[in-house]
Amino acid sequence: MSEPAPNPDRGQTDRLIKQYVEDRLSLSAEELDQLIEALRAQPALAIELRTQLLLDDLLAQKLAFDRRNFLAQVGQRIGDFEQGEEEIYSQVSELRALAEAELVEKPQHAQSSRWTMAIVAVLAVTLATLAFLAPQYWPVAPRTMAEVRDVHGDVFTVKGEQRSLVRTGDSVSTGILYEVVRGAHVRIEFRDKTTVEFGSGTKFQLVADRKSQAKLVQVDQGEVVAHVMPQRDLGPMVFNTPHARAIVVGTELRLIIEPEQTRLDVTEGQVDFERLAGGSPLRVAAHQSGVANQTGLVLRSLQWPDSEDRLLFTFHDSGIPHVRNPETGNPRETPLEERGPVRTIHAGEVYAFDGGSYYSPEAGEDLVANIRGKGAFTIETIVIPDSVYRVKNARILALGDDGEMANFQLLQRNNDLIFKLWTDGSKEPQELKLGEVKPDRAVHVAIAYDGHKLVGYLNGVATSELDNIRSGLATWNTGALSLGSDAGGKNVWRGLICGLAITDHALADFEVVRSAGQYQTLYARRDAGLMWDNLMADDLDPTRFAGAGNWQIVDDSWESEAVADAWFGFGPDDLKNYDLLVDVNWVEGDGPLKMTLPIAKRPVSVVLGKSGGEQKTALQDMGGQPMTGTGSMESEHSLPQGRTARVEVKVRLLKDLASLDVTVDGQPWLDWKGSPDKLPEVVSTNLPALKKPVLVTAGNVVRIEALKIRDLNRMATSAIGQ
């Protein structure tokens, strides 16, 4: 009898049978029809398929696996043991062979069958155990958790030998190591608006939680600042370091990871802080700090400067600095002399420089004696520059400064901060460029000198250094300490000094990071209220503001022509509670200047006369009548001729009471309080922009050298939104 001819469709039929056994849902309707026709035509194939299904059921009973996902499950659970796909198929083939032998085995081979069943059972138990235990030790699949919002400097992802630059907009996934190089920082944002900033020299990675969507961050070194939104059902956010664990539900915090300890500073809320080595956890509240090291956990209140043991100079709450007596080693009060328009604000914690300076020969003498004896120092100060225009070597801080030489100078040169240090026998100073600053933005500045190396920092990040300085400080001359100018009152600087500390040794990098972080934790919100929106900072185009009078850019200023209807609009519309700062230089003309200021959408007029002119300071409603309400006025005041005057305005609006204060060069000129409802409404006027503050220059030539606004309502809303 001849053999049947080979069926050309057998290969296709075998594929359909295999696909049906492996994943019957993957077959289309057309493929199912083809398989049914083939089984009808060849009953032997139907018997073979039935055998395959029986084997499949037997494997399911013995291994308790869903056959449809069998290979995927095996691959997942065996993958961590580095078995390839061929080994998986080999295991499956062996199991099939054993099951098939059991299915067709004759009764007389019962003993062999029992051995076979035992082997299959052992394999089944082994695989089931692996299925249960192995996932606890396998890496969790990476998942995207956050996005890079801001990058300064070089930040890398590290995968073995491969390093890739991180850019704004990149996704941040779990299991990837990030390295922030010295001088750089990166800010990431999670889906719930939680933000985390990683500072200079930080190494970190996000870790996937096996059981939840909770945020886990592993930080090996560096600095972390986090604003954590309420986590609700996600579980607490956890920061792990080599020493401790910070468990956060929702708060603002800073972590600083040093070689021997981890420090947690809390701005708002509460954080549970526990040591990895064990022991009872601490609950760290707002304005508290926790430190975890090898010996345990320590809780204390935050302060800046961090330690008073080695302080040579610092501000005090009373506004009177404390300087170390070089003979006794004890701090003593040393008042500063005022020269020109300067003042202290916030209970003496902040020094404001409006064209004047502070000066103290006694403080300078003590500082020189102390620093010469140690041959090292660190200066820390927080400054808010007033401007970056027309600033030529303005002195922020100097010791023994005669205008040309000094022991040291911290100065601003346009938008650059410069530190100069004179050492023994040197006619030329060691000059360190610290970096750029922005007007009306606070910056923490630190300069550390250890006798050989000079390092500069901005906001805790090392920006520049000079090595191999061979001469010391033994020949420093005794001289005065001056703030805001040199010792002779020249090279004047304008701005705010929010804090100043000088110590008798050079702080290490991580100590500067820690100190900058502590200051920010304690005072960042206070300093935010001191900063202005500088309307001349980024764009000097005067046409951005409504006005008339052909205003032109002259030497980084705005200057009007002598046009009768000239005026200039300041800032946004519909201000309620606001501060206004204008530096005005009256170039030509004799007529008065007028400022119209909105109070509850009802403008008033401040008349500013020029020195030598007949018109004096006055406050009027828009009808030209005296203001109803109560107030005081220095009517003899007038704007100076031939120099710039700083005019500051404060408008406050409560439910049924408004107030207005005007100062010039820091001196009070007028103040008023009254009901805004009693101010006359303005029906018509030739000024088209009475919704905002307006300077009416009329036929005078006026130069505006600074223009700033502080919208207190917007700032309050923004703070709540954060």
Automatic annotation (TrEMBL):
One of its GO terms (molecular function) is sigma factor antagonist activity. This is FecR protein. The lineage of its organism: Bacteria, Pseudomonadati, Planctomycetota, Planctomycetia, Pirellulales. Residues 182-271 form the FecR protein domain. Keywords: Membrane, Transmembrane, Transmembrane helix. SUPFAM superfamilies: Concanavalin A-like lectins/glucanases. Pfam families: FecR, Laminin_G_3. InterPro entries: ConA-like_dom_sf, FecR, Ferrdict_sens_TM. It comes from the Bacteria. It comes from Anatilimnocola aggregata. The chain crosses the membrane at residues 115-138. The keyword Transmembrane applies.
